[in-house]
Amino acid sequence: MAKKMISEMGLPKSISNIFTARNIITAKDALSHTEFELMELLDVGMSEVISAISHISELVSPPSQTALLLMEQRVCNESLAGHLPTRLKGLDEALCGGIPFGVLTELVGPAGIGKTQFCLKLSLLASLPANFGGLDGHVIYIDVESKFSSKRLIEIGMKSFPEIFHKKGMAQEMAGRILILRPTSLSEFAESLHQIKISLIHQHVKLLIIDSMAALVLGEYDCGASRQQALGRHVSFIKSLAEFSRIPVVVTNQVRSQIGDEPLMYSFQAQSHSRKKDNHATYDSHLVAALGVNWAHAVTIRLVLEAKSDQRFIKLAKSPISPPLAFPFNITSSGVVLLDDNGIEMKGPEINSIHCQGQNALFNF
Amino acid sequence: MEVGMLPISASKRGKLLSTGYTTLLSISRASLADLARDLQVSEPEASEIMKCASKTSTLDLSNGTHNTTVVNGGQTAWAMLNEEKFSLHITTSCMDLDNILGGGINCKEVTEIGGVPGIGKTQIGIQLAVNVQIPPEYGGLGGKAIYIDTEGSFMVERVLQIAEACIEDMSEYSNHFRKDLQASEVKMHPDSILENIFYFRVCSYTEQIALVNYLDKFITEHKDVKIIIIDSVTFHFRQDFDDMALRTRLLSAMALKLMKLASKFCLAVVLLNQVTTKHIDGSFQLTLALGDSWSHSCTNRIILFWNGNDRHAFIDKSPSLKSASAQYSVTPRGIRNSTSCKRIKMM
Fold first, then answer.
1. Which domains, from first to last, does chain B contain?
2. The domain that contains A325 carries what CATH number?
3. A104-126: pLDDT as tens digits
4. B153·A27 Cβ contact <8 A
5. ipTM (interface predicted TM)
6. Tens digit of each residue's pLDDT (9 = 90 or more) over B150-169
7. Is residue A196, in this structure, part of any structural domain at all?
8. Where is the RecA family profile domain (chain A) (predicted)?
């Protein structure tokens, strides 16, 4: 909508000609100026500028929907009420039915915790026929670190859904619905994303997995502002992709170690914070999600996978629909399995922490 | 007022000055035909200029004629005080938070709420969109809500949960405290609450600016709207800007328009903001995003933060409230007091 041409908006001819003459072609050009700037630039009176801008604004504004209409649309028109079930009962209940369509879901955790296993399972679930509770669609799997294993995929399928995979030819068909892309650079990734955008709707794609976003971005940019900006652009594109094709998008993220014990504070907290610091100065490192706070704001749902006292946990660290729960899980031949469907409710920011036993020693040199 | 300040195009202003019309008086004394001839413009254009000039000069002259208001559209502090007594609040459903806010989120003001990911910003946004609809019998406003979603994190399932909890609370309230209302059961239905939330999904900063411009017209058509929530004001402005000065200009123009909407239609504007890290005195600190000049744009600023294992809200900036912090919690039923079992009593 932002690219809409001003000349096609039905403004009075005299005004729209002035816009064109000053090289203000699209609505974005016009709205990137304040009204006073436009008055100077176009050399017309304030009242004309205001009426032109309000006309343009009205045409560019997105339409309003009531929340009721939104719910009816999502619940009635979409398969499985707009959620992709993970088949992990506790997690599905907490998420109102599974990974929601149209938003970005992030899996973050240390290496080897089971992120890719989770992604493999999800891609199978999306490709299953509808009468087995799947989405009956294609999957695009962007595999940056070359971790995708077709053998493991079939194994998970055989163990989890024997009734389907033992049918002749089904394994081939299911696996045939999963398309793996292996971009080697961020620019290649961006290019394939733009191609995907067009094919998403035609190809009946029902799930997009990016494993992992961190590897893609961290490999290419130095730390700093340019990385954040590149990341920001891609996030907004991926989000709009999810939104308009109404499919779930699952992204994995790595962890990095952070030296020092104190979390970041606001300036008004500083006083109490300095007192604490005197008591115990620790130089332990602990793990935090990579890609920074801007990214963390952008994902809608964040699932943290961690290991703590010989037990793996999957935690709902950020979600607008569910309470902060932690579920113990294990990885078996059929993929990720919850050991307990009643999650443990976590108090406080503990839900965001990432523990990793054994691995911690590695970071503690 | 001088000619240079007239809201007319630059070239016409230039012509006026070069042909000797340097004061408003000289314009108003000239005849229409003279003005048109001197400036070499058509008569309708000339009359437009005269209209502008006379409008501006009457504004100047009003000094003498009115004793109470010095300038048109102004208001004395006394009148403001009287008005503030009747000003309306929207409850947050957390009593402690309402207390430090002086009753809830204020109408006619722009309130910014920020915090780290997962602290509950969207939850507060949804809670307010539901609470604004509490009917006057229960101490609410009975208004409607506009929810502008820039991040795609608005979940209808969650709105339904909060709406159902809100209706339960209201019917419990009528059973306990107001026997006279008992006969009339709470007539509200969760569906009607959902129906009164106008949802806009904004996908670029251009759309965000356009929408804020258009809201004036939209609210004129839907007079009942009592709250505008933007979740979050930050997202698009954080992604695709190279020119930071432009970003600041656009943001402050937008804030100004929102402020105008708030006072014109007597509604509350709530802007949700993200956090960023800032390097101060050799260490990194958290602060709300969009920079220093943006932090002047909002009337009130509330920062949500973790204090140990509890969620707290801190009033960082407010012209009338003293800075204080209060504990709150996010429950399955929505935002509540942190001593969770205690039921929230409504006004």
1. 3-65 (1.10.150), 81-336 (3.40.50.300)
2. 3.40.50.300
3. 999 999 888 889 999 999 999 99
4. no
5. 0.83
6. 988 888 889 999 999 998 88
7. yes
8. 80-255
Tokens at B191, concatenated = 């569906």
Nearest in space to A287 (alpha carbons), one of A311, A264, A300, A306: A306
Domain termination residue (choose one: A18, A43, A60): A60
Q: Please indicate whether, in this complex, the C-beta atoms of B200 and A45 are within 8 angstroms of each other.
A: no
Chain B positions touching A104 (Cβ under 8 A) are 152
Query: How far does the CA of residue B137 sit from the closest CA of chain A (Å)?
Result: 24
* Residue A106 and residue A46 share a domain: no
Chain B nearest-CA residue for A352:
B118
Compute the average pLDDT of residues A224-238.
Answer: 79
* Tens of pLDDT, residues B172-203: 877 776 555 554 555 678 889 999 999 998 88
pLDDT band per the 50, 70, 90 thresholds, residue B148? very high
Q: Does B133 touch chain A (CB under 8 A)?
A: no
Distance CA B314, CA B328 (A): 11
> pLDDT (tens digit, 9 = 90+) per residue, B205-245?
899 999 999 999 999 999 899 999 999 898 888 877 778 88
Q: B109 to each of B115, B271, B299, B313, how far by Cα in Å? A: 20, 11, 6, 18
Pick the more confident residue, A36 or A358. A36
pLDDT at B58 over 70: no
The token pair that represents A157 in the structure block: 């399928």
- For B140, left (φ over 0), alpha (ψ -120 to 50), or beta? beta
Give a yes or no: residue A107 inside a domain. Answer: yes
Tokens 């009242």 identify what position? Answer: A47
Residue A1 lies in a domain: no
Contact A235 B122 (CB under 8 A): no
CA distances from A170 to A131, A136, A157, A301, B167 (A): 14, 13, 10, 32, 50
Closest to A117 measured CA to CA, from A252, A288, A316, A299: A252
pLDDT of residue A280: 44
A57 chain-B contacts, CB cut-off 8 A = 209-211, 213-214
Of B198, B213, B287, the CB nearest to A64: B198
In DSSP terms, B272 is beta-bridged to: B113, B231
Domain of A100 in residue numbering reads as 69-363
Q: Look at B240 and A40 and tell me if their CB atoms are within 8 Å.
A: no
The residues with which B113 forms a beta bridge, in sequence order, are B272, B302
Mean pLDDT of A20-27: 88
- CB distance A192 to A183 below 8 Å: yes
